[in-house]
Amino acid sequence: MPIIMRLDVMLAKRRMRSKALARAIGVTEANLSLLKSGKVNGVRFSTLAAICRALDCQPGDLMEYEPDDAAAEELEKTG
To answer: In this predicted model, what pLDDT tens digit does every residue of 56-71 receive, in sequence order?
Structure first.
């Protein structure tokens, strides 16, 4: 998937554990773990806002776009 989650990096920068973040934003540790690993198809804006508020960061600090081979080839064709 071309969207890479960097939540683990931001947690390390803020010296916060997943358990504390999960508690602060009102999600289960299991759901936060899935989000951290990128094994989700989406994230609610309210959840994203809560994470950003708790970690004092921007959405771009948590996610990164990295085109996969198919996306890069399509971009070359149209670009």
So the answer is: 999 999 999 988 776 6
